[in-house]
Protein backbone atom coordinates (compact mmCIF):
# COMPACT_ATOMS: atom_id res chain seq x y z
CA UNK A 1 0.00 0.00 0.00
CA UNK A 2 1.22 3.55 -0.71
CA UNK A 3 2.34 5.92 2.03
CA UNK A 4 -0.86 7.94 1.54
CA UNK A 5 -3.03 4.84 1.43
CA UNK A 6 -1.74 3.84 4.85
CA UNK A 7 -2.69 7.26 6.27
CA UNK A 8 -6.26 7.19 4.95
CA UNK A 9 -8.75 5.63 7.37
CA UNK A 10 -9.55 2.11 6.26
CA UNK A 11 -13.31 2.69 6.13
CA UNK A 12 -12.68 5.61 3.73
CA UNK A 13 -10.18 3.67 1.63
CA UNK A 14 -12.65 0.85 1.15
CA UNK A 15 -15.72 3.09 0.86
CA UNK A 16 -18.08 2.44 -2.01
CA UNK A 17 -18.87 6.07 -2.96
CA UNK A 18 -22.42 7.20 -3.69
CA UNK A 19 -23.05 6.81 -7.36
CA UNK A 20 -25.08 9.69 -8.74
CA UNK A 21 -27.59 9.22 -11.54
CA UNK A 22 -25.30 11.03 -14.03
CA UNK A 23 -22.30 8.87 -13.01
CA UNK A 24 -24.17 5.78 -14.20
CA UNK A 25 -24.65 6.96 -17.78
CA UNK A 26 -22.17 8.37 -20.29
CA UNK A 27 -23.30 9.36 -23.76
CA UNK A 28 -25.96 11.43 -25.43
CA UNK A 29 -28.84 12.27 -23.09
CA UNK A 30 -31.80 14.24 -24.44
CA UNK A 31 -34.37 13.29 -21.86
CA UNK A 32 -33.27 13.06 -18.26
CA UNK A 33 -35.61 10.85 -16.28
CA UNK A 34 -32.94 9.41 -14.03
CA UNK A 35 -32.58 11.67 -11.01
CA UNK A 36 -36.13 12.49 -9.91
CA UNK A 37 -35.59 16.17 -10.73
CA UNK A 38 -38.33 18.48 -11.89
CA UNK A 39 -38.68 19.17 -15.63
CA UNK A 40 -39.75 22.73 -14.74
CA UNK A 41 -36.65 24.74 -15.57
CA UNK A 42 -37.58 28.35 -14.87
CA UNK A 43 -35.26 28.53 -11.85
CA UNK A 44 -32.30 27.58 -14.02
CA UNK A 45 -31.25 25.14 -11.31
CA UNK A 46 -33.81 22.37 -11.61
CA UNK A 47 -31.01 19.89 -12.34
CA UNK A 48 -28.49 18.58 -9.82
CA UNK A 49 -25.04 20.19 -10.06
CA UNK A 50 -21.93 18.46 -11.39
CA UNK A 51 -20.71 16.45 -8.39
CA UNK A 52 -17.09 16.62 -9.63
CA UNK A 53 -17.12 20.36 -10.48
CA UNK A 54 -15.43 19.51 -13.78
CA UNK A 55 -15.83 22.85 -15.56
CA UNK A 56 -14.91 24.76 -12.42
CA UNK A 57 -11.79 22.67 -11.80
CA UNK A 58 -10.71 23.25 -15.41
CA UNK A 59 -11.14 26.98 -14.91
CA UNK A 60 -9.29 26.82 -11.59
CA UNK A 61 -6.40 25.12 -13.38
CA UNK A 62 -6.42 27.77 -16.12
CA UNK A 63 -6.66 30.80 -13.82
CA UNK A 64 -5.02 29.69 -10.56
CA UNK A 65 -2.65 27.03 -12.01
CA UNK A 66 -3.90 24.44 -9.51
CA UNK A 67 -3.76 21.10 -11.35
CA UNK A 68 -7.12 19.56 -12.24
CA UNK A 69 -6.38 16.12 -10.80
CA UNK A 70 -4.95 17.61 -7.61
CA UNK A 71 -7.93 19.84 -6.83
CA UNK A 72 -11.24 19.01 -5.16
CA UNK A 73 -13.89 21.68 -4.66
CA UNK A 74 -15.67 21.89 -1.35
CA UNK A 75 -18.51 23.82 0.26
CA UNK A 76 -16.13 26.47 1.54
CA UNK A 77 -12.78 25.47 2.97
CA UNK A 78 -14.57 24.78 6.25
CA UNK A 79 -16.05 21.66 4.66
CA UNK A 80 -12.54 20.66 3.58
CA UNK A 81 -11.27 20.91 7.16
CA UNK A 82 -14.07 18.62 8.34
CA UNK A 83 -13.54 16.14 5.49
CA UNK A 84 -9.78 15.92 6.04
CA UNK A 85 -10.28 15.16 9.73
CA UNK A 86 -12.80 12.46 8.84
CA UNK A 87 -10.55 10.96 6.18
CA UNK A 88 -7.35 10.82 8.25
CA UNK A 89 -8.36 10.65 11.92
CA UNK A 90 -10.00 7.85 13.87
CA UNK A 91 -12.56 9.21 16.37
CA UNK A 92 -11.58 8.69 19.98
CA UNK A 93 -8.07 7.59 19.01
CA UNK A 94 -6.21 10.13 16.89
CA UNK A 95 -5.17 13.71 17.42
CA UNK A 96 -4.49 16.85 15.41
CA UNK A 97 -2.10 19.70 16.17
CA UNK A 98 -2.90 23.40 15.89
CA UNK A 99 -0.66 26.39 16.68
CA UNK A 100 -2.51 28.92 18.76
CA UNK A 101 -3.66 31.56 18.35
CA UNK A 102 -5.23 30.51 15.08
CA UNK A 103 -8.49 30.02 13.18
CA UNK A 104 -11.07 28.47 15.51
CA UNK A 105 -12.72 26.00 13.13
CA UNK A 106 -9.92 23.38 13.27
CA UNK A 107 -10.74 22.77 16.92
CA UNK A 108 -14.50 22.77 16.39
CA UNK A 109 -14.37 20.22 13.56
CA UNK A 110 -11.96 18.04 15.55
CA UNK A 111 -14.38 18.20 18.49
CA UNK A 112 -17.33 17.33 16.26
CA UNK A 113 -15.42 14.27 15.07
CA UNK A 114 -14.24 13.29 18.58
CA UNK A 115 -10.63 13.81 17.60
CA UNK A 116 -8.39 15.37 20.23
CA UNK A 117 -6.61 18.66 19.65
CA UNK A 118 -3.09 19.42 20.84
CA UNK A 119 -2.28 23.12 21.10
CA UNK A 120 1.24 24.30 20.47
CA UNK A 121 1.70 27.97 21.27
CA UNK A 122 3.28 30.24 18.71
CA UNK A 123 6.54 31.84 19.80
CA UNK A 124 6.40 35.31 21.35
CA UNK A 125 7.04 36.81 17.92
CA UNK A 126 4.03 34.85 16.55
CA UNK A 127 6.15 32.55 14.37
CA UNK A 128 5.93 28.77 14.38
CA UNK A 129 7.69 27.05 17.27
CA UNK A 130 9.22 24.33 15.12
CA UNK A 131 11.07 22.68 18.03
CA UNK A 132 7.94 22.50 20.18
CA UNK A 133 5.95 21.07 17.25
CA UNK A 134 8.75 18.52 16.74
CA UNK A 135 8.49 17.40 20.36
CA UNK A 136 4.71 17.09 20.01
CA UNK A 137 5.14 14.97 16.89
CA UNK A 138 7.49 12.64 18.79
CA UNK A 139 5.14 12.36 21.74
CA UNK A 140 1.72 12.20 20.06
CA UNK A 141 2.14 11.19 16.37
CA UNK A 142 -0.67 13.48 15.21
CA UNK A 143 -2.55 12.46 12.08
CA UNK A 144 -2.92 16.09 10.93
CA UNK A 145 -1.01 19.29 11.69
CA UNK A 146 -2.95 22.39 10.66
CA UNK A 147 -0.85 25.42 9.70
CA UNK A 148 -2.71 28.58 8.81
CA UNK A 149 -0.51 30.79 6.61
CA UNK A 150 -1.09 33.73 6.51
CA UNK A 151 -2.36 33.08 10.01
CA UNK A 152 -5.76 34.22 11.19
CA UNK A 153 -5.93 36.31 13.40
CA UNK A 154 -2.30 37.44 13.57
CA UNK A 155 -2.17 38.13 9.82
CA UNK A 156 1.36 37.22 8.72
CA UNK A 157 2.72 34.46 6.52
CA UNK A 158 4.91 31.87 8.24
CA UNK A 159 8.38 31.18 6.91
CA UNK A 160 8.34 28.63 4.12
CA UNK A 161 11.34 26.86 5.68
CA UNK A 162 9.55 26.52 9.02
CA UNK A 163 6.45 25.08 7.38
CA UNK A 164 8.50 22.61 5.34
CA UNK A 165 10.52 21.63 8.43
CA UNK A 166 7.27 20.78 10.23
CA UNK A 167 5.86 18.92 7.21
CA UNK A 168 9.04 16.87 6.88
CA UNK A 169 9.09 15.90 10.57
CA UNK A 170 5.38 15.10 10.53
CA UNK A 171 4.61 11.51 9.56
CA UNK A 172 0.95 12.43 9.15
CA UNK A 173 -0.72 15.03 6.94
CA UNK A 174 0.29 18.70 7.08
CA UNK A 175 -2.59 20.95 6.05
CA UNK A 176 -1.53 24.45 5.01
CA UNK A 177 -4.59 26.69 5.09
CA UNK A 178 -3.96 29.48 2.58
CA UNK A 179 -7.31 31.26 2.85
CA UNK A 180 -5.56 34.66 2.75
CA UNK A 181 -2.68 33.81 0.41
CA UNK A 182 -3.90 36.16 -2.37
CA UNK A 183 -3.13 39.18 -0.18
CA UNK A 184 0.40 38.03 0.63
CA UNK A 185 2.29 38.38 -2.63
CA UNK A 186 3.24 34.71 -2.31
CA UNK A 187 2.12 32.03 -4.72
CA UNK A 188 1.58 29.66 -1.82
CA UNK A 189 3.00 26.23 -1.17
CA UNK A 190 1.04 23.78 -3.28
CA UNK A 191 4.10 22.96 -5.42
CA UNK A 192 5.75 21.48 -2.31
CA UNK A 193 3.26 18.62 -2.67
CA UNK A 194 5.53 17.22 -5.42
CA UNK A 195 8.32 16.84 -2.81
CA UNK A 196 6.16 15.83 0.13
CA UNK A 197 2.92 14.04 -0.75
CA UNK A 198 1.65 14.44 2.81
CA UNK A 199 1.18 18.20 2.29
CA UNK A 200 -2.37 19.39 1.62
CA UNK A 201 -3.14 23.02 0.74
CA UNK A 202 -6.51 24.69 1.34
CA UNK A 203 -7.70 27.64 -0.69
CA UNK A 204 -10.97 29.54 -0.67
CA UNK A 205 -12.91 31.91 -2.89
CA UNK A 206 -14.38 33.59 0.22
CA UNK A 207 -11.69 36.26 0.63
CA UNK A 208 -9.90 37.78 -2.37
CA UNK A 209 -12.44 36.24 -4.76
CA UNK A 210 -15.31 37.93 -2.94
CA UNK A 211 -17.55 34.87 -2.79
CA UNK A 212 -17.99 34.16 0.93
CA UNK A 213 -21.72 33.68 0.42
CA UNK A 214 -21.27 31.12 -2.34
CA UNK A 215 -19.17 28.71 -0.22
CA UNK A 216 -16.43 27.59 -2.59
CA UNK A 217 -13.25 26.10 -1.14
CA UNK A 218 -10.49 23.99 -2.61
CA UNK A 219 -8.35 21.12 -1.45
CA UNK A 220 -5.08 20.90 -3.36
CA UNK A 221 -3.34 17.60 -2.75
CA UNK A 222 -1.70 14.53 -4.15
CA UNK A 223 -4.19 12.85 -6.53
CA UNK A 224 -4.65 9.96 -4.08
CA UNK A 225 -5.80 12.38 -1.38
CA UNK A 226 -7.84 14.40 -3.89
CA UNK A 227 -9.64 11.21 -4.87
CA UNK A 228 -10.32 10.33 -1.22
CA UNK A 229 -11.86 13.78 -0.71
CA UNK A 230 -14.02 13.34 -3.84
CA UNK A 231 -15.23 9.97 -2.57
CA UNK A 232 -15.91 11.06 1.01
CA UNK A 233 -17.66 14.37 0.30
CA UNK A 234 -21.42 14.70 -0.05
CA UNK A 235 -22.03 14.16 -3.78
CA UNK A 236 -23.62 17.55 -4.49
CA UNK A 237 -21.58 19.59 -2.01
CA UNK A 238 -21.17 22.66 -4.26
CA UNK A 239 -24.45 24.01 -5.60
CA UNK A 240 -24.99 24.86 -9.26
CA UNK A 241 -25.40 28.53 -8.29
CA UNK A 242 -22.07 28.46 -6.49
CA UNK A 243 -20.24 26.69 -9.31
CA UNK A 244 -21.55 29.21 -11.76
CA UNK A 245 -20.69 32.19 -9.50
CA UNK A 246 -17.16 30.83 -9.09
CA UNK A 247 -16.74 30.34 -12.85
CA UNK A 248 -17.96 33.87 -13.40
CA UNK A 249 -15.56 35.42 -10.87
CA UNK A 250 -12.61 33.44 -12.23
CA UNK A 251 -13.34 34.99 -15.64
CA UNK A 252 -12.94 38.40 -14.05
CA UNK A 253 -9.42 37.97 -12.77
CA UNK A 254 -8.37 41.51 -13.75
CA UNK A 255 -11.14 43.07 -11.71
CA UNK A 256 -10.34 40.84 -8.73
CA UNK A 257 -6.65 41.76 -9.04
CA UNK A 258 -7.57 45.45 -8.98
CA UNK A 259 -9.75 45.03 -5.89
CA UNK A 260 -6.99 43.01 -4.22
CA UNK A 261 -4.45 45.77 -4.92
CA UNK A 262 -6.90 48.29 -3.49
CA UNK A 263 -7.25 46.19 -0.31
CA UNK A 264 -3.47 45.89 0.01
CA UNK A 265 -3.12 49.67 -0.43
CA UNK A 266 -5.83 50.30 2.17
CA UNK A 267 -4.11 47.84 4.51
CA UNK A 268 -0.98 49.98 4.28
CA UNK A 269 -2.92 53.18 4.80
CA UNK A 270 -4.81 51.83 7.83
CA UNK A 271 -1.72 50.23 9.37
CA UNK A 272 0.17 53.55 9.15
CA UNK A 273 -2.79 55.35 10.65
CA UNK A 274 -3.14 52.84 13.53
CA UNK A 275 0.54 53.41 14.36
CA UNK A 276 -0.18 57.10 14.99
CA UNK A 277 -2.87 56.38 17.58
CA UNK A 278 -1.76 56.77 21.21
CA UNK A 279 -4.14 54.03 22.41
CA UNK A 280 -2.79 51.42 19.95
CA UNK A 281 0.36 49.83 21.35
CA UNK A 282 0.99 47.28 18.58
CA UNK A 283 0.05 46.94 14.92
CA UNK A 284 0.75 43.44 13.67
CA UNK A 285 2.32 43.08 10.22
CA UNK A 286 -0.27 41.69 7.83
CA UNK A 287 -0.19 39.63 4.64
CA UNK A 288 -3.98 39.34 4.78
CA UNK A 289 -7.11 41.44 4.34
CA UNK A 290 -7.20 42.33 8.02
CA UNK A 291 -4.95 43.91 10.61
CA UNK A 292 -4.60 42.90 14.24
CA UNK A 293 -4.01 45.72 16.70
CA UNK A 294 -3.39 45.80 20.45
CA UNK A 295 -4.87 48.30 22.86
CA UNK A 296 -5.01 48.57 26.63
CA UNK A 297 -8.70 47.71 26.93
CA UNK A 298 -9.98 45.75 23.94
CA UNK A 299 -13.50 45.37 25.31
CA UNK A 300 -13.82 49.13 25.71
CA UNK A 301 -12.55 49.93 22.21
CA UNK A 302 -14.72 47.16 20.76
CA UNK A 303 -17.78 48.61 22.54
CA UNK A 304 -16.94 52.14 21.39
CA UNK A 305 -16.70 51.07 17.74
CA UNK A 306 -19.89 49.03 18.06
CA UNK A 307 -21.69 52.06 19.51
CA UNK A 308 -20.81 53.75 16.20
CA UNK A 309 -22.11 50.76 14.27
CA UNK A 310 -18.64 49.48 13.34
CA UNK A 311 -18.13 45.84 14.19
CA UNK A 312 -14.67 44.35 14.49
CA UNK A 313 -13.52 41.04 15.93
CA UNK A 314 -12.44 40.96 19.56
CA UNK A 315 -9.62 38.44 20.00
CA UNK A 316 -8.56 39.50 23.49
CA UNK A 317 -9.34 36.12 25.05
CA UNK A 318 -7.08 34.16 22.69
CA UNK A 319 -3.67 33.08 23.99
CA UNK A 320 -0.95 35.69 23.43
CA UNK A 321 -3.57 38.18 22.20
CA UNK A 322 -4.44 40.12 25.33
CA UNK A 323 -5.96 43.45 24.22
CA UNK A 324 -6.16 42.52 20.54
CA UNK A 325 -8.83 43.42 17.99
CA UNK A 326 -8.87 42.11 14.43
CA UNK A 327 -10.02 44.66 11.88
CA UNK A 328 -10.97 43.66 8.34
CA UNK A 329 -9.89 46.05 5.58
CA UNK A 330 -13.07 47.57 4.20
CA UNK A 331 -13.72 49.82 1.24
CA UNK A 332 -11.98 53.20 1.06
CA UNK A 333 -15.10 54.94 2.42
CA UNK A 334 -15.60 52.40 5.19
CA UNK A 335 -11.98 52.81 6.24
CA UNK A 336 -12.34 56.62 6.21
CA UNK A 337 -15.32 56.30 8.51
CA UNK A 338 -13.41 53.90 10.79
CA UNK A 339 -10.57 56.43 11.06
CA UNK A 340 -12.99 59.27 11.71
CA UNK A 341 -14.61 57.31 14.54
CA UNK A 342 -11.23 56.25 15.97
CA UNK A 343 -10.13 59.91 15.95
CA UNK A 344 -12.91 60.52 18.47
CA UNK A 345 -11.81 57.79 20.90
CA UNK A 346 -10.33 59.06 24.12
CA UNK A 347 -8.30 57.01 26.54
N1 LIG B 1 -9.52 29.23 6.92
C1 LIG B 1 -9.31 30.42 7.50
C2 LIG B 1 -7.96 30.72 8.01
C3 LIG B 1 -10.36 31.34 7.63
O1 LIG B 1 -10.13 32.50 8.24
C4 LIG B 1 -11.63 31.01 7.14
C5 LIG B 1 -12.82 31.92 7.23
N2 LIG B 1 -12.80 32.93 8.08
C6 LIG B 1 -11.79 29.76 6.55
C7 LIG B 1 -10.73 28.90 6.44
C8 LIG B 1 -13.11 29.30 6.05
O2 LIG B 1 -13.37 29.86 4.84
P1 LIG B 1 -14.54 29.35 3.89
O3 LIG B 1 -15.42 30.51 3.74
O4 LIG B 1 -13.83 28.94 2.65
O5 LIG B 1 -15.19 28.17 4.57
Describe this protein's structure:
The chain is of the alpha/beta class and 347 residues long. It is built from 13 helices and eleven strands. It has helices at residues 3-7, 10-13, 21-24, 54-64, 76-88, 105-112, 130-140, 160-169, 223-232, 240-250, 253-275, 298-307, 332-343, and strands at 71-74, 95-100, 116-121, 144-148, 173-177, 199-204, 217-220, 280-283, 290-295, 313-314, 324-328. The strands form two sheets. The protein has a seven-stranded mixed beta sheet, with helices on both faces. α6 links the parallel β2 (95-100) and β3. The longest helix is centred in the last third of the chain and has 23 residues, at 253-275. It is globular and about 70 Å long. The model has no long low-confidence stretch (mean pLDDT 97).
Features:
alpha/beta, 7-stranded mixed beta sheet, binds 4'-deoxy-4'-aminopyridoxal-5'-phosphate, 347 residues, 4-stranded antiparallel beta sheet, globular
Uncertain spans? none
Shape: globular
Separate helix tally:
13
Main beta sheet strand tally, sense and closure: 7 strands, mixed
Gyration radius (Cα, Å) is: 22 Å
Secondary-structure content class = alpha/beta
Strand order of the largest sheet: 1-7-6-5-4-2-3
Summary of the model, kept short:
The protein is of the alpha/beta class. It has helices at 3-7, 10-13, 21-24, 54-64, 76-88, 105-112, 130-140, 160-169, 223-232, 240-250, 253-275, 298-307, 332-343; strands at 71-74, 95-100, 116-121, 144-148, 173-177, 199-204, 217-220, 280-283, 290-295, 313-314, 324-328.
Describe the secondary-structure layout.
Blueprint: H1 3-7, H2 10-13, H3 21-24, H4 54-64, E1 71-74, H5 76-88, E2 95-100, H6 105-112, E3 116-121, H7 130-140, E4 144-148, H8 160-169, E5 173-177, E6 199-204, E7 217-220, H9 223-232, H10 240-250, H11 253-275, E8 280-283, E9 290-295, H12 298-307, E10 313-314, E11 324-328, H13 332-343
Parallel strand pairs: 2-3, 2-4, 4-5, 5-6
Antiparallel strand pairs: 1-7, 6-7, 8-9, 9-11, 10-11
Helix pairs in contact: 4-10, 5-6, 7-8
The protein binds 4'-deoxy-4'-aminopyridoxal-5'-phosphate.
4'-deoxy-4'-aminopyridoxal-5'-phosphate (PMP) binds next to helix 5.
Amino acid sequence: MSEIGRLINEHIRTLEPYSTARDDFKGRADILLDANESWFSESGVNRYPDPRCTALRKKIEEVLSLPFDMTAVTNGSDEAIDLLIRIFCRPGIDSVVIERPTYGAYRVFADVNNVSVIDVRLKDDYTLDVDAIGRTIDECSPRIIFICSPNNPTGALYSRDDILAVADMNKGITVIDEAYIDFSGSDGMWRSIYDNRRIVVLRTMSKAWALAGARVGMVVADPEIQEAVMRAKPPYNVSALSQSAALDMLSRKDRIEAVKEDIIGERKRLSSYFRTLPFISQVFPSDSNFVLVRTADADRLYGYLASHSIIVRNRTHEPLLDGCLRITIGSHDENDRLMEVLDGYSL
